[in-house]
Design a protein that fits this description.
Length: about 475
């Protein structure tokens, strides 16, 4: 926007130096006509001599420099008198050195200082430090003030518990240098190496059930969790329970969400199966209970501290399986899966769950086949999960009665990303998985790590039909 030029404002009258206000045409004290004041000269800022770029020779103008006046003439400058030209004494009464009485050493030092000054002049540095004669005296620093003594400790308060020092057996030792102690944050105090967290790699076997969870090769923590347990049906037949949960990485506290959901669902199935006449209903109620446990995390103070406006509430996916006699029940929310792999590999395997994801919806609607849907970059965007900000909780349950023995593979997408089709999963499962479930779980996790380990990997192996509790080996 253009602006009109404004006249120069005066703060004082040029004649009597009395204050004037902007817009006054005459001075109120002496009557001086303020409009007659000449305009201020143009601003010509002072430039430093060092660091400026000289103008090109073509633009430079010849300057006629005046000749220097003769020494002693009328135009010669007044000689400069230095402090050393005046005789005087210091505080002790000793005579101060003068320029005429300077020692040869002092003169030499003065000449050196002059040379240094001439050298630094080209750099824009001016040295004005006077040359001090060497008097042989040392300057002593001021004495340090006395530090306050700490107060004497009084008698211990019996109400405050005194922490007992950790014994050498309880102290954690760094896994890298095997010498430094590990602090409360999980780092070595000697080499600084981050120590493995407890959940970085977990293995568990409960009778014929087994599960393995691993952090993977790309994530900084393991956000998966699992729960294994045994229960009974109302008729007294044993029931094997396996629950696997995958924390949503884009949410707050995903590791806590998966752990709370797995534990809650496992405990709910252990308590509910003996009282329910329909295991499928017990699975449904267990998923509802797990959802409540994850929702409760959103109201905890720890979540409020970590929760940012662009982050979601704690959330996770869940898949569970119950095997009892000739009955197989699965339940899920999200994209964690359950596979059926028969012991006779000539029989076809099957995927028992349908993903709550963008790709799953495209396949279910018949808009894409499975290969096309999971090749899309939106394939793994989940549409169902456990969490306070879930759109609507819709637990899925299904019941099966296989006609032959086999194993149920319950896993997160960290595994099935590397064996997506049921045939691919069956090819990775060892043939003796029903007799060595822990070994089979280790093999499956190793397959995902060998494929890149881009995500956390968790898998539980449940033999079908249920063998006697306590059977199975690593």
């Amino acid at each position: 926007m253009s602006q009109m030029p404004q006249p120069t404002a005066l703060s004082r009258c040029p004649s009597c130096e009395e204050p004037v206000e902007s817009g006054d045409r005459y001075c109120g004290a002496c009557g001086y006509e303020l409009s007659a004041v000449p305009a201020s000269p143009p601003d010509t800022p002072t430039l430093t001599m060092n660091g400026t770029t000289p103008r090109p020779r073509s633009e430079a103008t010849d300057v006629e420099w005046p000749a220097a006046p003769p020494a002693g003439g009328p135009g010669a400058p007044v000689p400069v008198h230095l402090p050393t030209d005046i005789r005087g004494t210091d505080s002790a009464g000793s005579e101060l050195p003068t320029a005429h009485a300077a020692t040869p050493a002092a003169k030499g030092a003065a000449e050196d200082a002059a040379k240094d000054a001439s050298k630094n002049a080209s750099k824009g540095v001016r040295l004005e430090r006077p040359v001090e004669p060497d008097s042989g005296d040392y300057h002593l620093a001021a004495p340090r003030p006395a530090e306050p003594r700490p107060a004497e400790p009084g008698p211990a308060d019996p109400r405050v518990p005194v922490p007992s020092p950790a014994s050498p057996a309880e102290a954690k030792v760094c896994v890298a240098c095997r010498a430094g102690a590990v602090d409360s944050d999980g780092y070595c105090e000697r080499c600084g190496h981050a120590q493995p967290r407890e959940r970085d790699h977990l293995e568990q076997q409960s009778g014929a059930l087994a599960a393995v969870s691993d952090r993977g090769l790309r994530h900084h923590r393991n956000e998966d969790a699992f729960a294994l347990s045994w229960s009974t049906l109302p008729d007294g037949s044993p029931a094997a329970v396996a629950v696997v949960c995958d924390g949503v990485s884009s949410a707050t506290r995903p590791d806590d969400a998966s752990l709370a959901a797995a534990r809650t669902a496992g405990e709910a199935l252990t308590r509910g199966l003996p009282r329910s006449t329909r295991p499928q209903q017990a699975m449904h109620e267990a998923i509802i209970a797990a959802s409540g446990a994850v929702n409760a995390l959103a109201t905890e103070p720890e979540t409020a501290q970590e929760h940012a406006p662009h982050q979601n509430a704690p959330a996770c996916t869940l898949v569970g399986a119950v095997v009892s006699g000739g009955l197989l029940v699965v339940g899920w929310v999200g994209d964690s899966r359950a596979y059926w792999v028969p012991a006779d590999r000539s029989a076809p395997p099957a995927r028992l769950t349908e993903d709550d994801s963008w790709a799953g919806q495209m396949v279910a609607a018949g808009l894409m086949n499975e290969a096309q849907a999971y090749a899309d970059e939106r394939a793994h965007a989940i549409t169902g999960w456990l969490g306070a900000d879930a759109y609507e909780l819709e637990p899925h349950t299904a019941s099966f009665e296989p006609d032959r023995p086999g194993v149920v593979v319950v896993c997160t997408d960290g595994l099935w990303n590397y064996a997506e089709a049921a045939e691919e999963m069956a090819a990775v499962v060892p043939p003796d998985a029903d007799r060595r479930p822990l070994h089979a779980a280790r093999v499956l996790v190793g397959h995902a790590l060998d494929g890149g380990g881009h995500d956390n990997v968790t898998v539980a192996v449940v033999p079908f039909p249920t063998p006697p509790q306590g059977a199975g080996s690593a």
